[in-house]
Amino acid sequence: MVVSSSGEQLSSKQCEDLGFTGLALCSDCNTLYEYVKDKELMSDCLKCCTEDSDDSVSKITYSGAILEVCMRKLVFYPEIVGFIEEEKSKFPAVKVQYVFNSPPKLIMLDDEGQHKETIRIDNWKREHLLQFLRRKVKPNSATS
């Protein structure tokens, strides 16, 4: 079953509550459906996905990001701890914010510092975090 987005989109908060990050391409929803065969899940996925095209997702960049996580839960996320301790200094536009009970997430910021997208990173490896930030955060956008 190959389906394209119906045009109805949910907010990034609604998608996050459903377990989707907003980073999924609509073709990923089709792949998910092949394995899960759940039409309701497929429908939710399509409301949170981004159309596949070279121009859309790959070219979106942000001025900065906030890595939000609960300090008490850090022990469960060694990859994120490694990033914070050893790699974060390479990304001056990325700030770490400790919020009680928050799952690890990246809050992507626009030029005005407004929240544009929230991405859960619970299971991300350090390399994936580095690769994503190199691609998505403008290198010269550090706000001093």
From TrEMBL:
Superkingdom of origin: Eukaryota
Transmembrane segments: none
Localization, UniProt: Endoplasmic reticulum lumen
Protein name as it appears in the record: Selenoprotein F
Family, per entry: Belongs to the selenoprotein M/F family.
Protein's UniProt keywords contain Endoplasmic reticulum: yes
Main location: endoplasmic reticulum
Domain Selenoprotein F/M: 64-137
Pfam families in the cross-refs: Sep15_SelM
Keywords on record: Endoplasmic reticulum, Selenocysteine, Signal
